[in-house]
Amino acid sequence: MLKKLLAAAAIPFVVSASAAQSQAPSPANEARLLWKSIIGNLNQAADELSETMYAYRPTPDVRTVGEMFAHVAGSQKMYCAMALGEKAPGEGDVEKTAKTKAAIVAALKESNTYCERAYSQPDENLKAPVEIFGQTHPRFYALIANASHDGEHYGNIVTYMRLNKLVPPSSRRQ
After folding, report:
1. Confidence (pTM)
2. Pairing with 8, which of 22, 57, 60, 167 sits 20 to 30 Å away (CA)?
3. How far are the Cα atoms of 2, 18, 55, 131 from residue 135, in angstroms, in the given order?
């Protein structure tokens, strides 16, 4: 009788543990959440800043605001192509061709749509190897590198905005 009672009492714990294992977070989804947070701030800044601000360059040896957004759009296409196992375009392609705010914002949004596909892959797909700057990594690495790279350049945009007495999107949230 005691054995049956203990066995019955253990059932919820066994069910709970197996449910928790089946609901483990997806690495691809966690990477997507990180990327969405960063790219959301970049998109908001890109939309809000004026065409005049797109030409702003704090020193002669750095990219303008517009060049920074175009660089992000181009690099996103490159990293996300790597994560998808597709032929990667040149990282600087967008920066060389998109010169107006409208063209740059359109390129950024198009790269976001492309990257949505990369970040929505099943985790199993992201284990496949891919060459990234001469080193072999799993495709998942390309997703993390993309989010990290986007974050790096959002930091540049934050600095550019602060130098112009503008409050960046991430500082306006509670």
Report:
1. 0.84
2. 22
3. 60, 37, 35, 5
Give me the helices (H) in the chain, please: 2-22, 27-48, 51-54, 65-84, 93-97, 101-119, 139-163
Q: How far apart are CA 80 and CA 75, in angstroms?
A: 8
Task: Report the candidate in 31, 108, 119, 101 with the shortest Cα–Cα distance to residue 71.
Answer: 108
157: Cβ–Cβ under 8 A, 6 or more apart, which residues? Answer: 42, 45, 65, 68, 69, 168
- Measured between alpha carbons, how far is 15 from 21 in angstroms, rounded to an integer? 10
1.20.120.450, 3.40.50.2300, 3.40.50.1970, 1.10.287.70: which CATH number matches 35-171?
1.20.120.450
pLDDT of residue 25: 87
21: exposed, middle or buried (Cβ count in 10 Å: 0-12, 13-18, 19+): exposed
